[in-house]
Amino acid sequence: MQREAASEYLRGALWALPTVAVVIALAAGSGLSYVEVDPGSWADSFLFQGTADDARTLLIAIASTMATVIALVLGLTVVALQLASTQFSPRLLRAFLRDRVNQVVLSIFVATFVYSTAGLYTVGVEAGQRVDEYPRLAVTVALVLLFLSLLVLVFFIHHLTHSIQIDEVMRTVERRTLRVIARDLPTTGLSNEPRPLPPGWVVDVAAHRSGYLQTIHPVALVEAAAYSGATALVTRMVGEHVIVGSPLVQVWQEPVGPPPDLDRLTAAARDAIRIGFERTAEQDVAFGVRQLADIAVKALSPAINDPYTAIQAIEHLSVILASLAGRPLGDQFLRDEAGVLRVVVPGRNFEYYLDLACGQVRRYGRSEPRVVRALLRILHSTGQFCTDDDGRRLVIDQVKLLLADSQRAIVQPADFVVVREHGDRVLSDLVGQTSPRRKDSTTAM
């Protein structure tokens, strides 16, 4: 768990790759300083041809130029972060910090600066005295790094302008969320059965720190519960906030026996559940849905008033909902080798994701017919991807809520006529896909 937390932190640390680049630049400069090229050889004509003073002047110029470029890059990055935070959502800042292109570009600039500055200690100087001999290959590499940095600077500006475009921002959130759905959502032990009610003699394992549940790997918890002969219920879902000292895991034995090995279970809970100061996208599909919903809601605010951006966010949400509609969701019930229930991990069901994606957007955009029709389109497509009648019933409920809210909010009756016709078509299609028994109960709602 500690290695996973460190890896997650380093992926979002803007200083990590530049620090590695500094070490590589110093090692490369030190090694190349000992490489000599024979005069008159084929490689000699490609090396720097100036004197030692010319080489020192070149290194000074490169170092000063790269210092300016680094300041420019950091300034542009801060501006991009500020724009993304104020215009889209503050929860998008982490994605910009984790952008590998930004980290690599900054690393190249820092490496060029360090390489050139360190070269001033050896080029044209030996034992405190000026000399005519200097490592020509090492100086030539500094010149190559300068040209590489200029090319990378142009690419960085191109990348930055594209990365703050709303289409690219939403596409990045969508791809990351789909990756979490495919890789991190549990696939075994899922069930919609009620969670077991803890008995009166339950023992609480307290949270060791305050923060957000970032990941849950329940294997260690299952082993500890099986060893203690206990059943463990995790009280929070990934992405939820906990307070230090509050119950994080509830443990009990049936039939009533001696208290479980609480020390072992506490240690297993720390190994299985990672708590951090910020919410991350790991195992947390709701975080990606929340980001897209935030973009849509902010675009619908009177200060911005950008319905088209909201519609784009809704369309990206439709891809995520379609992916969720076709897979099992809910709580995870984990059993030991003997088939005894040992750990219950709470999970979000399809109803939760559907309300998270549509609820706030519906309430803020109910007076705009185009936004309402965009919501109707994604509900229609989501219903078509549902593999059971329960999922389609939830979609039908959302359609009815949307039509009821929009009828009260849309002022012009002529505008609502189009919305109503669209909604009736969606309802007719979704109701027609349900089984006869479900169709009757849905129509009666």
Please characterize this protein's 3D structure:
This protein has 445 residues and is of the alpha+beta class. It has a domain at 2-164. The chain has 16 helices and 11 strands. It has helices at 2-11, 16-32, 52-88, 93-97, 100-119, 136-163, 166-183, 219-228, 262-272, 285-299, 307-325, 350-365, 369-385, 389-409, 413-433, 436-443; strands at residues 125-126, 129-130, 190-191, 203-206, 211-216, 231-234, 241-242, 247-252, 273-276, 331-335, 341-345. The longest helix is centred in the first third of the chain and has 37 residues, at 52-88. The protein is flat and about 90 Å long. The mean pLDDT is 87.
What is this entry, summarized?
InterPro entries: DUF2254_membrane (IPR018723). This protein has 445 residues and is of the alpha+beta class.
What topology does this entry show?
Layout: H1 2-11, H2 16-32, H3 52-88, H4 93-97, H5 100-119, E1 125-126, E2 129-130, H6 136-163, H7 166-183, E3 190-191, E4 203-206, E5 211-216, H8 219-228, E6 231-234, E7 241-242, E8 247-252, H9 262-272, E9 273-276, H10 285-299, H11 307-325, E10 331-335, E11 341-345, H12 350-365, H13 369-385, H14 389-409, H15 413-433, H16 436-443
Parallel strand pairs: 6-11
Antiparallel strand pairs: 1-2, 3-10, 4-8, 5-7, 5-9, 6-8, 10-11
Helix pairs in contact: 2-5, 3-5, 3-6, 5-6, 7-10, 7-11, 8-9, 10-11, 10-12, 11-12, 11-13, 12-13, 12-14, 13-14, 13-15, 14-15
